[in-house]
Protein backbone atom coordinates (compact mmCIF):
# COMPACT_ATOMS: atom_id res chain seq x y z
CA UNK A 1 0.00 0.00 0.00
CA UNK A 2 1.49 3.34 -1.09
CA UNK A 3 1.81 6.36 1.10
CA UNK A 4 -0.86 9.02 0.57
CA UNK A 5 1.14 12.24 0.90
CA UNK A 6 -2.00 14.35 1.02
CA UNK A 7 -3.42 12.40 3.95
CA UNK A 8 -0.04 12.46 5.70
CA UNK A 9 -0.02 16.26 5.43
CA UNK A 10 -3.58 16.43 6.78
CA UNK A 11 -2.50 14.34 9.78
CA UNK A 12 0.56 16.56 10.23
CA UNK A 13 -1.52 19.75 10.23
CA UNK A 14 -3.99 18.28 12.74
CA UNK A 15 -1.21 17.16 15.09
CA UNK A 16 0.64 20.48 14.74
CA UNK A 17 -2.55 22.38 15.57
CA UNK A 18 -3.15 20.21 18.64
CA UNK A 19 0.46 20.54 19.86
CA UNK A 20 0.08 24.29 19.25
CA UNK A 21 3.66 25.46 19.93
CA UNK A 22 2.63 29.12 19.46
CA UNK A 23 0.65 29.08 22.70
CA UNK A 24 3.58 27.82 24.79
CA UNK A 25 6.28 30.13 23.36
CA UNK A 26 5.80 32.89 25.98
CA UNK A 27 5.82 30.21 28.71
CA UNK A 28 9.02 28.53 27.47
CA UNK A 29 10.76 31.86 26.96
CA UNK A 30 9.81 32.77 30.53
CA UNK A 31 11.40 29.58 31.90
CA UNK A 32 14.47 30.06 29.72
CA UNK A 33 14.98 33.72 30.67
CA UNK A 34 14.55 33.01 34.37
CA UNK A 35 17.05 30.16 34.19
CA UNK A 36 19.60 32.24 32.30
CA UNK A 37 19.36 35.02 34.87
CA UNK A 38 19.52 32.79 37.95
CA UNK A 39 21.98 30.09 36.90
CA UNK A 40 25.72 30.26 36.38
CA UNK A 41 25.49 27.46 33.82
CA UNK A 42 24.24 29.01 30.57
CA UNK A 43 22.25 27.06 27.97
CA UNK A 44 21.72 28.18 24.37
CA UNK A 45 18.21 28.48 22.94
CA UNK A 46 19.13 26.07 20.12
CA UNK A 47 20.26 23.45 22.65
CA UNK A 48 16.99 23.80 24.56
CA UNK A 49 14.87 23.46 21.42
CA UNK A 50 16.89 20.45 20.19
CA UNK A 51 16.40 18.60 23.49
CA UNK A 52 12.67 19.39 23.55
CA UNK A 53 12.31 18.18 19.95
CA UNK A 54 14.03 14.86 20.67
CA UNK A 55 11.58 14.12 23.47
CA UNK A 56 8.64 15.14 21.25
CA UNK A 57 9.81 12.85 18.41
CA UNK A 58 10.23 9.85 20.73
CA UNK A 59 6.74 10.25 22.21
CA UNK A 60 5.11 10.74 18.79
CA UNK A 61 6.86 7.68 17.35
CA UNK A 62 5.80 5.47 20.25
CA UNK A 63 2.12 6.40 19.92
CA UNK A 64 2.19 6.33 16.10
CA UNK A 65 3.42 2.74 16.19
CA UNK A 66 1.47 1.47 19.21
CA UNK A 67 -1.71 3.51 18.85
CA UNK A 68 -3.81 0.79 17.21
CA UNK A 69 -2.35 -1.88 19.50
CA UNK A 70 -3.39 0.19 22.53
CA UNK A 71 -6.89 0.51 21.07
CA UNK A 72 -7.18 -3.25 20.50
CA UNK A 73 -5.70 -4.09 23.92
CA UNK A 74 -8.23 -1.91 25.72
CA UNK A 75 -11.07 -3.32 23.62
CA UNK A 76 -12.39 0.12 22.72
CA UNK A 77 -14.61 0.61 19.70
CA UNK A 78 -13.66 3.29 17.15
CA UNK A 79 -16.92 5.12 17.91
CA UNK A 80 -16.23 5.26 21.66
CA UNK A 81 -12.69 6.44 21.08
CA UNK A 82 -13.73 9.14 18.62
CA UNK A 83 -16.40 10.52 20.96
CA UNK A 84 -14.13 10.36 24.03
CA UNK A 85 -11.17 11.79 22.14
CA UNK A 86 -13.33 14.53 20.69
CA UNK A 87 -14.53 15.61 24.13
CA UNK A 88 -10.91 15.79 25.35
CA UNK A 89 -9.87 17.89 22.34
CA UNK A 90 -12.78 20.30 22.77
CA UNK A 91 -11.78 20.69 26.44
CA UNK A 92 -8.15 21.14 25.44
CA UNK A 93 -9.10 23.85 22.95
CA UNK A 94 -11.02 25.72 25.65
CA UNK A 95 -8.13 25.31 28.13
CA UNK A 96 -5.64 26.58 25.54
CA UNK A 97 -7.81 29.66 24.99
CA UNK A 98 -7.38 30.32 28.72
CA UNK A 99 -3.59 30.23 28.44
CA UNK A 100 -2.93 26.88 30.15
CA UNK A 101 -4.36 28.14 33.42
CA UNK A 102 -4.00 24.68 34.95
CA UNK A 103 -0.32 24.31 34.05
CA UNK A 104 1.45 27.04 36.00
CA UNK A 105 4.88 25.53 36.58
CA UNK A 106 8.39 26.88 36.79
CA UNK A 107 11.42 24.66 37.24
CA UNK A 108 14.78 25.85 38.49
CA UNK A 109 16.34 22.92 36.66
CA UNK A 110 16.05 23.56 32.92
CA UNK A 111 16.90 19.91 32.15
CA UNK A 112 13.88 18.74 34.13
CA UNK A 113 11.63 21.35 32.56
CA UNK A 114 12.59 20.17 29.04
CA UNK A 115 10.77 16.87 29.57
CA UNK A 116 8.08 17.99 32.02
CA UNK A 117 6.20 20.23 31.61
CA UNK A 118 7.51 21.56 28.25
CA UNK A 119 7.71 18.52 25.96
CA UNK A 120 4.85 16.85 27.79
CA UNK A 121 2.18 17.81 28.69
CA UNK A 122 2.48 21.37 27.32
CA UNK A 123 3.31 20.37 23.73
CA UNK A 124 2.60 16.64 23.46
CA UNK A 125 -0.28 16.28 25.87
CA UNK A 126 -3.36 14.06 26.23
CA UNK A 127 -4.95 15.70 23.19
CA UNK A 128 -2.05 14.78 20.89
CA UNK A 129 -1.84 11.22 22.18
CA UNK A 130 -5.61 10.75 21.91
CA UNK A 131 -5.54 12.11 18.35
CA UNK A 132 -2.80 9.65 17.35
CA UNK A 133 -4.68 6.68 18.77
CA UNK A 134 -7.91 7.88 17.11
CA UNK A 135 -6.20 8.46 13.76
CA UNK A 136 -4.75 4.93 13.92
CA UNK A 137 -8.27 3.63 13.25
CA UNK A 138 -8.31 4.83 9.65
CA UNK A 139 -4.62 5.30 8.78
CA UNK A 140 -1.58 3.08 8.40
CA UNK A 141 1.34 3.18 10.84
CA UNK A 142 3.61 4.50 8.07
CA UNK A 143 1.25 7.39 7.34
CA UNK A 144 1.01 8.25 11.05
CA UNK A 145 4.80 8.17 11.41
CA UNK A 146 5.31 10.48 8.40
CA UNK A 147 2.55 12.83 9.56
CA UNK A 148 3.98 12.88 13.10
CA UNK A 149 7.50 13.64 11.89
CA UNK A 150 6.27 16.49 9.68
CA UNK A 151 4.34 17.89 12.67
CA UNK A 152 7.47 17.52 14.83
CA UNK A 153 9.53 19.36 12.20
CA UNK A 154 7.02 22.22 12.06
CA UNK A 155 7.03 22.39 15.86
CA UNK A 156 10.85 22.40 15.90
CA UNK A 157 11.02 25.27 13.38
CA UNK A 158 8.39 27.22 15.31
CA UNK A 159 10.23 26.87 18.60
CA UNK A 160 13.60 27.58 16.99
CA UNK A 161 12.28 30.86 15.61
CA UNK A 162 10.43 31.74 18.84
CA UNK A 163 12.66 34.69 19.85
CA UNK A 164 12.24 36.16 16.34
CA UNK A 165 8.49 35.53 16.33
CA UNK A 166 8.09 37.36 19.63
CA UNK A 167 10.09 40.29 18.26
CA UNK A 168 8.05 40.45 15.04
CA UNK A 169 4.57 39.64 16.37
CA UNK A 170 5.09 40.84 19.93
CA UNK A 171 3.96 38.83 22.93
CA UNK A 172 0.30 39.69 22.23
CA UNK A 173 0.55 38.57 18.61
CA UNK A 174 2.19 35.30 19.57
CA UNK A 175 -0.53 34.59 22.13
CA UNK A 176 -3.17 35.47 19.50
CA UNK A 177 -1.67 32.89 17.12
CA UNK A 178 -1.95 30.30 19.88
CA UNK A 179 -5.58 31.25 20.51
CA UNK A 180 -6.39 30.80 16.81
CA UNK A 181 -4.98 27.27 16.77
CA UNK A 182 -7.08 26.56 19.88
CA UNK A 183 -10.17 27.06 17.69
CA UNK A 184 -8.80 24.49 15.23
CA UNK A 185 -8.26 22.03 18.11
CA UNK A 186 -11.86 22.45 19.30
CA UNK A 187 -13.19 22.10 15.74
CA UNK A 188 -11.23 18.86 15.26
CA UNK A 189 -12.71 17.61 18.54
CA UNK A 190 -16.26 18.37 17.38
CA UNK A 191 -15.51 16.59 14.09
CA UNK A 192 -14.41 13.47 16.01
CA UNK A 193 -17.57 13.53 18.13
CA UNK A 194 -19.76 13.80 15.03
CA UNK A 195 -17.80 10.96 13.42
CA UNK A 196 -18.36 8.76 16.48
CA UNK A 197 -22.10 9.53 16.54
CA UNK A 198 -22.25 8.67 12.83
CA UNK A 199 -20.58 5.31 13.46
CA UNK A 200 -23.21 4.59 16.12
CA UNK A 201 -25.94 5.47 13.63
CA UNK A 202 -27.28 8.31 15.77
CA UNK A 203 -26.75 10.88 13.00
CA UNK A 204 -26.28 10.55 9.27
Automatic annotation (TrEMBL):
Record Pfam families: MarC (PF01914)
InterPro entries noted in UniProt: Multi_antbiot-R_MarC
Membrane topology: Multi-pass membrane protein
Spans traversing the lipid bilayer: 12-35, 47-67, 73-94, 114-135, 141-166, 178-203
One GO location term (cellular component): plasma membrane
Compartments it resides in: Cell membrane
Keywords carried by this UniProt record: Cell membrane, Membrane, Transmembrane, Transmembrane helix
UniProt record similarity statement: Belongs to the UPF0056 (MarC) family.
Name this polypeptide is given: UPF0056 membrane protein
Species this chain originates from: Sulfodiicoccus acidiphilus
Taxonomic lineage from the root: Archaea, Thermoproteota, Thermoprotei, Sulfolobales, Sulfolobaceae
Amino acid sequence: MGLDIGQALVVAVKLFAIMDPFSVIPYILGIYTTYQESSQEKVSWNYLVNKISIVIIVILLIFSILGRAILDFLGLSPAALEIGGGIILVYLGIDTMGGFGQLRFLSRNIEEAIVTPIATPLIVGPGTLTALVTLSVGHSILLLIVGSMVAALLTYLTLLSAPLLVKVLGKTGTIAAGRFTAIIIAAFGVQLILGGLTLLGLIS
